[in-house]
Amino acid sequence: MNSGIIIFPVNQVIESFKMIGGVKELLQQIKDKAVSNREELEAFRLEYLSKKGKVAALFEELKNVQKEDRRAFGAELNNLKNLAQSRFDEWAEALGKQGGPSAKAEPDFTLPVPPFSYGSLHPLTLTKKRITEIFSRMGFDVADGPEVETDWFNFGALNFADNHPAREMQDTFFIEKGKGRDDVLLRTHTSNVQIRLLNNKKPPVRSIMPGRVFRNEAISARAHCIFHQVEGLYVDRNVSFKDLKDTLYYFAKEMFGKESKIRLRPSFFPFTEPSAEIDVTCFICKGKGCNICKHSGWVEIAGSGMVDPNVLRNCGIDPDVFTGFAFGMGIERIAMLRYDIKDLRLFTENDVRFLRQFSGA
Ligand code: DAH
Fold it and tell me: For the chain, N or C: smaller number of CB within 10 Å?
């Protein structure tokens, strides 16, 4: 039975009174505050807005007041907090506009710039650029040709006899087979561009032809199924073997150092007669013998020779009037020698630790 007497929990009533007093007092304090510099602003923040400040302390007290009053006091406290925050924001903005050492709005232009990492050219690109630059000084322009090629341009016109084992020796990737000279394949060397050039342009022709080539080889430290070559071709009246030697000698000195020497070893290529492999003195050990040159003092850099008269004929050029020389070198090989790179796979793995080393090159 209800006796009609309501019993208030005395402690909670007292707490509610305390809360009323506390809110009033803080409200007045915050209204009365004035802040004229950053230090005072920070002191205000600590006193009223921080986790250990006076407003937070009153929030802490909420749990002690009468249940019925909590919602109303909560709202009061929120108002108090908002007032403190908006006063703080006003002062902060005003102080920021005034500038000064602790104003946060102005950037400090005297600070050192944070380190910025630039990209770098790929070592193969750097090497190709260097090769192109050296030959352009000797009057060679740059020509380009297709990577997907027919048998005729890659082999036939270059004087490879039908069924010549070189078609298999060069581990050709065939795309369409059984059409003879119209077989479609991925070019195995850049020599196809020689034919493309001579078909379209009458001598004098003096070009280098950098590009990508493809051979069905197992990938290892020394071989890859995709790599790069630079082809060279000079066809004109009276081009001689001496011109070939002088050109490659100049190239070797520019590429590997002034004291470099070259030597020519007799060789065979279907598209050149006579043919020669070009060696350069090992620029690592200066000819004394090291791992790079396999203790011979020489490293091989290119194949070369005088353009075979059959090749000129296949392109409608009279070999009794014109002669020419040609050469071909692997860009990876030159880059490996130049930068002392031991594993060909590094060129295609895209490891930034490797690539970053060429940022200053
Ligand atoms: N095409 C040859 C190869 O891939 C390289 C070559 C040798 C190119 C002699 C030439 C040359 O132009 O004259 O192995």
Answer: N
Rounded Cα gap, residues 25 and 218, in angstroms:
85
Dist. CA 229–CA 13, nearest whole Å: 93
pLDDT at 331: 98
Q: Is the CB of 304 under 6 A from ligand 1?
A: yes
Indicate whether 85 and 164 sit together in one domain: no
User: Cα of 230 to ligand 1 centre, how many Å?
Assistant: 9
Q: How far apart are CA 122 and CA 134, in angstroms?
A: 19
Same domain, 206 and 313: yes
Q: Give 327 Cα–ligand 1 centroid separation in angstroms.
A: 6
Q: 3-state DSSP call for residue 266?
A: strand
Does the structure show a pLDDT above 60 at 7? no
CB-based contacts of 241: which residues, under 8 Å, 6+ apart? 274, 306, 325
Q: Which protein residue has the closest C-alpha to ligand 1 atom 12?
A: 327
Which residue range forms the structural domain that includes residue 80?
Answer: 10-97
CB of 305 closer than 6 A to ligand 1? yes
Instruction: Check pLDDT > 90 for residue 2.
Output: no
Q: For tokens 């000279």, name the residue.
A: 181
Q: What single-letter amino acid sits at 329?
A: M
Considering the domain architecture, whether residues 262 and 150 belong to the same structural domain is answered as yes
Report CA(153)–ligand 1 centroid distance (Å).
14
In angstroms, the CA 250 to CA 247 distance is: 5
The answer, yes or no, to whether any atom of ligand 1 lies below 6 A from the CB of 44, is no
Nearby residues of 201 by Cβ (< 8 Å), 6 or more positions away: none
Residue with CA nearest ligand 1 atom 2: 328
* Ligand 1 pocket residue status of 192, Cβ below 6 Å: no
Nearest Cα to Cα of residue 325 among 311, 303, 304, 309: 304
Give residue 170's pLDDT band: very low, low, confident or very high (50, 70, 90): low
Q: Is ligand 1 within 6 A of the CB of residue 281?
A: no
- Domains in the chain, number: 2
The CATH number that applies at residue 189 is 3.30.930.10
What pLDDT shows up at residue 1?
45
Residue 278 alpha carbon to ligand 1 centre in Å: 11
Q: What is the DSSP letter of 83?
A: H
Q: Which helix or strand (DSSP H or E) is residue 299 part of?
A: strand 298-307
